[in-house]
Amino acid sequence: MPFALVALAIGAFGIGTTEFVIMGVLPQVAADFGVTIPTAGWLVTGYALGVVLGAPLLTVLGTRVSRKKMLMFLMGLFIVGNALSAVAPVFAVMLTGRVVASLAHGAFFGVGSVVAAGLVAPEKKASAISLMFMGLTLANVVGVPGGTFIGQEVGWRATFAVVTALGVVGLLGVAKLVPEGGRPEGVTVRTEFAAFRNVQVWLAMAMTVLGFGGVFAAVTYIAPMMTEVTGYSAGAVTWLLVLFGVGMFVGNLVGGHFADRALMPMLFTSLGGLALALLMFTFTAHDRVLAAITLTLVGALGFATVPPLQKWVLDQASAAPTLASAANIGAFNLGNALAAWLGGLVISAGLGYTSPNWVGALLSGTALLLALLAAALDRRNRGVTVPVDAMAPSRV
Fold first, then answer.
1. Residue 181 above 70 pLDDT?
2. How far apart are CA 123 and CA 37, in angstroms?
3. Quick one: which of 373, 256, 265 has its CA closest to 303?
4. Which among 44, 155, 148 has a CA at the least distance from the CA of 94?
5. Coiled-coil region(s) at which residues (predicted)?
6. Residue 265: phi, psi to the nearest 5?
7. CATH code of the domain occupying 188-396
8. Mutual orientation of helices 91-118 and 67-87 as an angle, nearest 10°?
9. Would you identify the CATH topology of the domain 1-185?
10. CA distances, 34 to each of 27, 39, 96, 159 (Å)
């Protein structure tokens, strides 16, 4: 494994931690600034919007420099944003810091995916991408619970100071370990945008929005579901989220490994399994043991889609993959926002705290249909008429 992947994983760990840890310290932040919880919630919403907007914007601006320099710039932006949050004297400054940090998120994973894939042989690209994303999954297992604990014991400012330090480590790692390279030849803003003429790129992003959106339809409302329906205490929710993070970690590695062998079959399996697991969650949520197992499965199957989807985008936009890759990262956050909104609608309609699971199953099932369509279009374009389950691994 190239050591440069470790540097990318460290950066991903810091980014994943800052994205989700705010949810664990939100009450303390709200109390410190004298704002309501819904107002403090803009620290979550603002971050998500910054990811969606920052991914394509910064990626386009970065076409004039090498990918290593771009990664270093993004980690610098991440450091500035989190440092600003740590010392913010008023809520508006805190929100500004969150948005600044979020601008680096999508572009880092987008550019990082291209760099990771370029460090290994073609048949190992999905595994390399999954190793970078391993940092994001570990953030949910270690970083978020640890950051929440620090925030509760020492103060939320200490949490963001630690995240800032993680950013410094990530920046130094990129500077030291990622190989130097010139600006990608022949890549301009025009060629990057030209990748979006390929319908497969749009299908991949739609699969990302719907597939991973299915996960967040359920997980966004996991606290009330586990406490009001399953019967767990409020304190147990943190450990349930750790189980979810463990599932993400395992699913990411498995997804990367098998996507290198047979990309689309892996995607069919993970999306189909995710839709089924979310359907099951409606019923297993009434039992503590089964609920914990199902939550872990949802995390594993949901993140098993990430390496194959990201590699599919890279393959389809091979001439200029950076912008398409970053846009696909933005699609994850768009899916999170859409799913959370839809889940809130069905709860508000009086359908209960398990109803977002049905929404998630519908979203993931639709993503599976789009994956089947993408595979059919790919076979037609290649003039191949073989069964779906017999797709040649050489495609990846």
1. no
2. 48
3. 256
4. 44
5. none
6. -55, -35
7. 1.20.1250.20
8. 160
9. Growth Hormone; Chain: A; (1.20.1250)
10. 10, 10, 17, 19
